[in-house]
Give the backbone structure.
Amino acid sequence: MAPDVKKILTFVGLTYLFCWLLIGVYAISGGEWVSGKTAPVALLFSWIPGLVAIGLQKYLYKDREPVMSRLSIRFRPNRWFFVAAAIPAVAALATNEVGLMLPWHEYSPDMAGFYRMLEKTLSPEKIEQVRMFYDRLPFSVFWFSFVTGIVGGVTISALFTLGEEIGWRGFVQKQFSALGFWKSSLLTGFLWGVWYVPTVLMGQYYDDHRGYGAGMMIVFCLLLAPLLNYIRLKSGSVAAASIFHGTLKSLVAVPMIMVEGGNDLTLGFTGLAGFIVLFVANLLVAGFDRFVSDQPVIFPVAEAADEVANESGEEEEKTS
């Protein structure tokens, strides 16, 4: 069955309208994405796609199947929920190593580069408080940030990203599913990346290169979308995808803590170092699905993938 273009355009149009209007009002009122006061706006921005998807499924595209099921909103964990937290953790360590291999970067045990980045968002007094806190830690700042990032990722950060995943993976990706795994992932990733453009232009992730950053963000979403889609299909739930997404966001500083040099186009998950790691991760996922998985979901026809994934998710729930 061909994608329902009308449904996709309705969702994308409403989501862009509400989200970009929110960002426009915030910008006109003097808001800055790097001001440290962005959390309420960021939370609402992240949840608008989910609210739009739920509203459309409940009131416009009525069906006998419950809305939660149609949008793959399931909270009973299976083993893929744990995989969803583990992959970003491994990716954070890999991005740190790749970042240190790039010629523009060097190892910085005194975290000089990290503290310079904090100057964009924190006052000198706050930075000194952060420095004193880290100096008192009885263990490595890197591993402290790594562990707390995972904990925060599967809890608070996952709640932020759940709205995004309901909208982009639970609604849009399913509408594109007839095109196959890769096409549906890339089309969703592109629309998702364009959605981020206004926040990037305000300073999110690429404060020093906002114009180039808008394009970089689209590339980042194109690389990340297949991984999130795979987790959704294998787990049968957008909640697992939100854990993956939330953990990745919560660990965003880890690959930059001990690295000095470069800039926001080369550092971390959203820079060149992260792009290399995400590209390799996509190859590994494809290899795993092709040669290892007993229930592969990367099929030429993604409707079959969704069917297998739903059965897989139900089976995982039974065995967890």
